[in-house]
Design goal:
The chain has 108 residues and is mainly alpha-helical. The chain has one domain (4-107). The chain has 6 helices and 4 strands; from the N terminus they run E-E-H-E-E-H-H-H-H-H. It has a two-stranded antiparallel ribbon with strand order 1-2. It has a two-stranded antiparallel ribbon with strand order 3-4. Strand 1 (4-5) and strand 2 (14-15) form a beta hairpin. Helix 2 (45-54) packs across helix 4 (68-84). The radius of gyration is 14 Å and the shape is globular. It starts with a strand and ends with a helix.
Length: 108
């Protein structure tokens, strides 16, 4: 598969596997505070997954000034990453980076 690229704030770091990308997002970027519920989650995949799974489409549109294309893109991204990711490998990588890895466990 083509390299995975971080799209957080123009970062553009590239990784050979999705686990490395998600671990980078968790450990290499500031956390994201959800505009809907104020929960703090890692930026990137986990922030997108939080929005898609925890809030309605209407909330996403209202709080993030999004449209239906934005929603579909994020829903597709969550599906693609969830299908591709090796949760155990992500957990090991997060532990190696000093994270306790609760987000990786939530994927199981």
């Amino acid at each position: 598969m083509a390299p995975w690229t971080c799209a957080i704030g123009g970062c553009a770091a590239s990784f050979d596997d999705i686990e490395a990308l998600v671990a980078h997002q968790v450990t290499g970027h500031e956390a994201h505070r959800c505009r809907v519920c104020d929960e703090v989650v890692p930026e990137g995949f986990f922030a997108i997954r939080h929005m898609v799974e925890e809030h309605t489409r209407a909330e996403y549109v209202r709080f993030y000034d999004a449209n239906s294309d934005d929603i579909r893109l994020r829903e597709s991204l969550v599906e693609d990453v969830t299908a591709e990711i090796d949760v155990e490998a992500l957990h090991r990588r997060l532990e190696a980076d000093g994270s306790d890895g609760p987000q990786a466990e939530a994927l199981e």
